[in-house]
Amino acid sequence: MIQVDDSGSGSFVGGTCIGIYRPETNEYYFDIIPVELYSVENFAKKKYLDEVVNIVEAAFRVLCPAEGEIIEVCRGYMFDRLKIWLTENGYRWYSTQITGQVQEIVEKSFELYAERLGLPGHYIKYTRYPFHFHKLLRWVYADFENRIRLCKVGWKCWQKIAGLTPDISDACICAPSFICMKCGRYIKPGSEIRVIRFVSNRENYVYLHKACHARRSFVRLPDATKGRSPGPSPYPDN
Ligand SMILES: [Zn+2]
Questions:
Q1: Coil, strand or helix: which one is 206?
Q2: Are strands 2-7 and 70-74 parallel, antiparallel or unpaired?
């Protein structure tokens, strides 16, 4: 039997991991749907669904399914085009709720990938749930120019707020146990900090070491999907 599962499709940060597993022999193959396929244009065309087919096709070249070997496919929209491809190519497959070892392995693959993108460990748990979109946004706004490139910007919930301009101000932090969202290190009580405030579905605050807040990092990206130049930065100089 071969099982096909995904992880990260609900995470605003990163692409999506597709894992293919054969429990009898413990063979595993995975790949990541690149986040570029979640740009505004590609997302509208659901290009990520074609990439699922490409990844599974590559996995099958390695795993070589036996004649009549059962393929279990996780329920959900991620595999809509894969199911058509499986039928067209004569595979015996069915859709089911995938649980157990394969699910854990695919989730772990996505976690390691998210960690490599720079997402702190305590933030990775938010990548499992789409409703933590707003929590992931705080990490994104701490280094906007670099981190927005790692996000599924074609999502409608992002498009609704993509043009918002955060307020940037200085403050002095007194309480201990604040972590700089850019470098991930603790902020010493009594030190000067930069505060980024933005409103999504609620008011959000991001705290950074003053030295970690490089102004250039907050110049808004050109809209790559429309080929426009970025224009003047909407962010204040300080
Ligand atoms: Zn810092």
A1: strand
A2: parallel
Q: 10 C-alpha vs ligand 1 centroid, how far in Å?
A: 28
Q: How far is the CA of 236 from the centre of ligand 1 (A)?
A: 20
Span from the CA of 183 to the centroid of ligand 1 (angstroms):
4
From ligand 1's centre to the CA of 147, what distance in Å? Answer: 15
User: Distance, CA 115 to ligand 1 centroid (Å)?
Assistant: 18
Res. 132 pLDDT band, cuts 50 70 90: confident
What does the block give as tokens for 79?
Answer: 């595999």
Q: Are strands 2-7 and 192-199 parallel, antiparallel or unpaired?
A: unpaired
> How high is the pLDDT of residue 63?
98
| Overall CATH class of domain 2-116 | alpha beta
Instruction: Write the class of the CATH domain 131-218.
Output: alpha beta
d(CA 237, CA 168): 9
CATH 3.30.1740 boundaries in the chain: 131-218
pLDDT tens digit sequence for 174-193? 887 888 999 989 999 999 99
Ligand 1 centroid from CA 144, angstroms: 14
Name residues with Cβ closer than 5 Å to ligand 1, which is an ion.
180, 182-183, 209, 212
